[in-house]
Amino acid sequence: MKFNHEWHLKHKMPLKASFEQRLAWHIEHAKHCGCRKPPPKILDEMIKSGIQIERGQ
Ligand SMILES: [Zn+2]
Fold it and tell me: How far is ligand 1, taken at its centre, from the CA of residue 57, in Å?
């Protein structure tokens, strides 16, 4: 997966995003772009919720 610039333009992370907002953002991000991995806390929550994401890179 590579950097999806178009997706990033359309999906800005809110400046004071709550954990839930960040989680939702990273879930969508993982589907559309592979520029960076979610932070460990977010990743844990995604795994707990049974969300499948690309683990490569
Ligand atoms: Zn990205």
Answer: 13
